[in-house]
Amino acid sequence: MSEPHKDLLQIEDLNKDEIESILAAAQPFKELFKRSVKKVPTLQGKTVLSLFYEPSTRTSSSFEVAANRLSADFTSLAVASSSVVKGETILDTVDTLGAMRADYIVIRHKKAGIPNLVAEHTDASVINAGDGFHAHPTQALLDASTLYDVFGKLDFSGKKILIVGDILHSRVARSTSRIMTMLGAEVRVLGPGTLVPPGRPDKMKKFKNYEEALDWKPDVVYLLRVQFERQGEQFFPSSGEYHSVYGLNEDRFNKIKDEGVWVMHPGPVNRGVELADSVTTYDRCLINRQVENGIATRMAVLYWLKPQTFQQDG
Amino acid sequence: MDDLILLKQASVASEDSADLFETDVLVENGVIKAVSSSLNAIDGTRVIDAKGKVLLPGLFDVHVHVREPGQTSKETIRTGSEAAINGGVTGIVAMPNTVPAIDNGGMVRSVLEIAGRDSRVEFFTTGCITKDRKGKEMAAIGGMKEAGVVMITDDGSPVENPQLLRRAMEYAREFDLPLASHCETMHLSGAGAMNEGKRSYKLGVPGIPSISEEICIARDIQIAAYTGAHLHLQHVTTARGMEIIRRAKNDGVKVTCEVAPHHLIFNENDIVNYDTYFKMNPPLRTEEDNEKLLEGLIEGVFDVIATDHAPHTEFEKKQQDFETAPFGITGLETALPSLYHHYIKEGKFGWDLLVKRYAAEPRRILNLDQVSVKEGSRAELVLFDPQATTTFSQDFMKSKSPNTPFLDKELQGSVDLVVNGEEVLLDRSDGAA
């Protein structure tokens, strides 16, 4: 069963049918981009407001382009310079947005659960564009959409996906591993002992080193962005050591490129840390494809969700 | 006020017997005059039909935040004491993390003065171990003892410096003051907001690892053993932490400890949709910890049950995200019904355990006079109806703050009557208005 939801907060809220309907809806938008006129009137007269409490270029512009191509009005609230920093609570802000009759609120925040809190207090559809370490559902959907393109089907059974890097602090790892598993793929992880927590799902097995991981013959190597330091705490000794132990360096890249392994990364890439420079020009490197599919997938999400504000149209 | 109250056919609970015994109880001028079957009422006696109801001594909670002075939008001594009465608690010990903190004799006197006017239950206060709970300098422990504190604690924070904690224990020992520890290792807790584990991973919320608490328990016990001071460990939540305490007790270390009802009943998996009414510190742990803590309570590792009643306004809890919202839930009103509902009714433990751990031992570890349902005892009584139910609506509750996981939930049992000396503090028994 696939019923449109009001909000998109986390992949866990979607069943397999619902994921498939969103991904299916994204396909025609991908075709649309090949035309000279890339715009459809689907959401004409509707308003999409974006609230990014964390800096982001690609995700916020991806949503903006998606909204524009659906003919919605898009406004982004410059949160960092607005009254939000002057002590107004996030729910006060949401009230204000309610008064502006926003139909969709796209929100990114450094605290987990903020989109869930906001969703309870508004009739607008809330789209989580990343909250703390919790979830990034549109990233998961665009990743699945990208693998749909290369695998040629939505059933990922038998496919093996290796996620490498900072599992602990990654909302992408949580959301993307979840969707891949739901679509039938097997997901395993590799990363520093400090960043691969025991609390992860049991079936996400951990490899000890790259050699062991590559012997598993993954179809996809999904690299996560790493940060050398978080709030004064170090999780590995240096970026250089990370690259030599957990990076997709030249040696490892040479090993996998002849085996047709796909490489993904949610961006922005730290060249020379998560991957060697040469990886970005590899023909099976999907990073740009992910960005492109991000727009189509976010259009599909906007198209699929059903804001409570629409009911007033009778 | 009734000078004479006769409770007919009450089922009396005591710490000495697993069985309830049915009897009549006569209260005259705030004292239990007679405990015997078939007592007759003389004129002017208020007679209460207590058949099928449990009569127990007034409960005593050693860990309560009344927020006065300084945070009276959350709670006051008056509303805190009313919440206590609503839950059958007739004595409370207030924590000193008020604003300003209770860290000198003058503050103690002023709080006790407010309590003398506003508290409707027996009220005791603790004082800080260190000035303003900052963990830098020792607070005026002798002066606070003279002013009447029953315990010292920096509750809400550990004393991070072990040398300062050691000196405080050596110093407090000579005043016969127990030193209560909130056990946490701040470098390990970091920005954590819930137990570190599968659930925190799933919710993407920074975790507080169990070792944060356990390391501090072990450290404080070593210092207590070394100094010979009475160490009281607050709100223990992990099975491993409890085992450290059990070993220390077997070794003869002067250590007592408490467990909170919510750490017995709930675990991390109960945190659904970032509900901040399940956020407290130390956090809800695992299902296995629930089971082990219950075993420990039954086996006697825990000296007392205490709620860590921690009121916060609805605004603070519900208008903020899980990580930002303050730690703490209320507990005074729900403790007795929730323990009855989950354990006594289910045959997990008896009324004797409840009386021992939530009425008798709390007074004993603080060297206070005991109350019991016996002839000659001061009448500090609670009548509990196991047949009735209670729904913890905001209307029902007397606390200023609604932050309890039991909000709008129904539990089996009802506190019907609370007597404190000559005063009937609460009367929901039949025939009452």
Enumerate the spans of chain B where pLDDT stays under 50 for 5 or more consecutive residues: none
Radius of gyration of chain B: 21 Å
Structural class of chain A: alpha/beta
Distance between the termini of chain B: 14 Å
Widest sheet, order of strands of chain A: 7-6-5-8-11
Q: What series of H and E elements makes up the topology of chain A? A: HEHEHEHEHEHEEHEEEHHEH
Question: How would you sum up the major sheet of chain A?
Answer: 5 strands, parallel
Beta-strand content bin of chain A: 5-15%
What shape does the CA trace of chain B take? globular
CATH class type of the largest domain in chain B: Alpha Beta
Mean pLDDT of chain B, to the nearest integer, reads 96
Question: What's this, in brief?
Answer:
The complex is a heterodimer of chains A (314) and B (433). With 314 residues, chain A is an alpha/beta fold.
Describe the structure.
The complex is a heterodimer of chains A (314) and B (433). Chain A has 314 residues and is α/β, with parallel strands linked by helices. Helix content of chain A is 36%, strand content 15%. In chain A, a hairpin with a 2-residue loop joins strand 9 and strand 10. The longest helix of chain A is centred in the last third of the chain and has 18 residues. Chain A is globular and about 55 Å long. Chain B folds into two domains: 105 residues, Urease, subunit C, domain 1 (Roll); 307 residues, Alpha-Beta Barrel (TIM Barrel), CATH 3.20.20.140. In chain B, helix 2 links the parallel strand 7 and strand 8. The radius of gyration of chain B is 21 Å and the shape is globular. The mean pLDDT of chain B is 96. Chains A and B meet through helix 4 of A and helix 6 of B.
